[in-house]
Amino acid sequence: MSEKVLTIEEEMRQIANSKQYSDYCLHYSAESLRFKLLPEKIKLLSYYLMLKGEFEKLTQAIPDEIFTSPPVTIEEFLAGPAASVSETLRHAWRKEILEYFAVGSSFSEIVFTGAAGTGRL
Fold it and tell me: Who wins on pLDDT, 53 or 9?
């Protein structure tokens, strides 16, 4: 049995009605007044392009609506703003972070916690 291929309109409608999209909008609207004031179509387009790993298209299509300056890649971030952390970052963690934050990555959230059992009181 073949899987039904959705039209872009059907896919966008499914996304718009999903809990993940609702959570995305709630989070970014609370974090950014600029995002909160965007038209719903722009919010939906930004989420769709993010899901499809087409972040570059998003920054090209609507840069002024979303960004005050283009976001840096994870490599640029580790070399610039996070350079002091990057210097002591173990190779295995660097590899994981670069993979996790790569353009087109399927990850949407990350949680860092302290090490368990280190003797903290």
Answer: 9
